[in-house]
Fold each of these.
Amino acid sequence: MRATYPAAVYLCLFDGGRILLQRRCGTGYRDGELSLPAGHIEPGESATAAVLREAREETGLVLDPARVRLALVQHGRADGDTYIDFFFAADLPAGVQPIVGEPDKASELVWAEAEALPEDVVPVIRNGIEALLRGETYTEYGW
């Protein structure tokens, strides 16, 4: 039997030493905890196209694809699921501010110090952010 895993994208949007997080709500998964703007890769969609779409949907930001880079791949097991996660990094474009684009899925946006993440960041997401900040390009979680 060949293993197949769902794939998800995560946006690590930086403003200096801060990273943008969003508080989950209404999804049934880790509601009340902080995560990154993120989502599943849809059929026929590349990982880059997915992260650009999720950025637009969840934060209202239209990011330049040339300014968004794949920074980390994580193979993780958490909460009964196994995923391949693509963490993309980008800097906040000058003159714009993100908004809560999907209030049914996120109650607020939080700028947090990347090197001192709040305690309530979803653990698998924390693992990915911390690995990225260490300069790793691949990490595993939950194995």
Amino acid sequence: MNVAGRLGLGTAPLGNLFTAISDDEADATVLAAWEMGVRWFDTAPQYGHGLAETRLGRVLPGLPRAEMTVASKVGRLLRPVSPRPPTIFRDVPLVDPVFDYTRDGVLRSIEESLIRLRLDRLDVVHVHDPDDHEQAALDGAFPALIELREQGVIGAVGCGMNQAEMLQRFVHEVDLDVVLLAGRYTLLDRSGEPLLEECAARGVGVLLGGVFNSGLLAEPTVDATFDYSTAPAALVDRAQRMQRVCAEAGVALPAAALQFALRHPAVQTVLFGARSADEVRTDVAHAEATVPDDLWPALEAIR
């Protein structure tokens, strides 16, 4: 498989994460990913409060369905809420994510996602961010998804989180096919490594998101973000030192960040977010860039 075949398009930016884009820009982003060889598309009702799924639904039905993998998530239903809570998505539909990890909530969520996506099935369904709802997910969401998988309604069952500890418990307790770990296995944060090793031992696929830690490893400026908040000065300094080492080797820091994630043998797919066709092409080029083997120990030494 070529490198692009191990990449997936994360669609939070298509849901106007932080900044609004047009439908035409979103269409061009998805089509550019397809043209570059990306075949995995990761979305969720939360992303743009349904907007990301709706935008995928403008493009994906016109592409060969058998060649793509489409993953969405359950655990949040989109419902009118008054007063509306704050959101990091801009210019979104007048509905808001409401936590629901029950069996009925799972079934409704999948049905509504398929309508927005204009598809008849999902290849992968993740339980989304059950950080404060662990038991509800174990009692409701996971059994419902496993039942749907056994019926052939969905292809695979996963869980997507920004923490590794609970995911590791789920790998032990639930018959998962895949996990999606965001931000916890990167050049700056290796805390998810025990989870990756556990998944490798158990034959559970690993998808990695957040490999730029929301921006710091893409452009390590003093006002960069780390996990969607202002990056601490010590982390900015560390990322800048990594950037200098990469530059001496003729490698862009984002290329090293992407390829670090791809190097782990447990990792099946690495997700990257993009809000334009140019960003897609840049990230795929980073994933395909030549990185000398001696760069990795040099980066490992930066603490």
Amino acid sequence: MILISACLIGINCKYNGKNNAVPFLDNLPKHIVPICPEQLGGLPTPRPQAEIILGDGKDVLEGNAKVITKKGNDVTKNFIFGAKQVLKIAQVCGAKEAILKAHSPSCGSGLIYDGSFKGKLKKGDGVTAALLKKKGIKILSEKELFPHHCF
């Protein structure tokens, strides 16, 4: 089984109520499980844009950074709860890999938005990506799967 960010397969669960559908993912194997950590964490769709400030997902899980919306609301607990729910799903279905949305404060792997809400990136993982990596689940993004395509 492979987890996949639901927004990547056309499910409207992105913060703005839309999706990040990647047509190249239309022919995925049938053993995928769509997940949206932010929805699983109790956040609505659409919802205010959020970014991690003063660290990355690992720091959030350790209590040293926060996830804040563009309006300044703290949604850290939602992001942590959602990440834990995704981990439970991974464990139940035996997932060893996940294809997650690049740069997301939940799903980003290697690079995430820097907390300025200006589209700038910093090194680090999103909250869910950090937790899954810690538990030995391999993380890939759509950008890693299809490096020569513009998204």
Amino acid sequence: MFDTHVNLHAEAYSDDLSEVLHRARAAGVNRMLAICERLDSFERVKAIADAHDDIWCSVGTHPHHAKSFPNTTAAELVDLASDPKVVAIGETGLDLHYNHSPVDEQETSFRTHITAARETGLPVIVHTREADDLTADVLEDETKAGAFSILLHCYTGGADLAARGLALGAFVSVSGILSFKSAKAVREVIEAVPLDRVILETDCPYLAPVPYRGRRNEPSYLPYVADALAELHGTTREIIADTCETNALQLFRKVT
């Protein structure tokens, strides 16, 4: 299985990263993507990827931190993405729930990341919260300048954004949220997404799936995300794992 969204450089793992990775591999997680949330943490993220043959990374700045990196250019992201271990741009996007950064600065950063994704051919990892319409508008507008690959990560948005994203060729990733009893609306949206466009992730150290909800999340829990998706589609963990890994490798083409 391929865990396509982990935050292995988080302080939560500082004392026992080796044990976390050991448990992941024992659980059948054979590829991991370490996510960059701030450009000033990129070297730390890449160091983790460089140290392990089964870990790759992204480069970018989360919308929460857009105001802290107002001068980031697409050329800078393109240059950093030339490293063999960098397989995606982001995460980037729009978050109107917390508004830690002004929406105009979030949108500028989002479009800069998309330009880098278009120029590198790497997928852009999109975070969106309470910003469905604006996210879809930006993605559609940017597509006019040329196609780029999209991952709507840890998807909790509505059916309309999912449909508009899928029309642009996007993949949709699901996390432990899918296993929460309270996530009926999320399951209804994800059930309508074709299985050949779905990818698994943990988004660790957050959002641990049932039966570990409330604990620190880690990649070894990815099989339980697969179980939740399998239950939704009336199939098996094994089929979901194989299908979603195939999808992930189709999207993250630099991963071997």
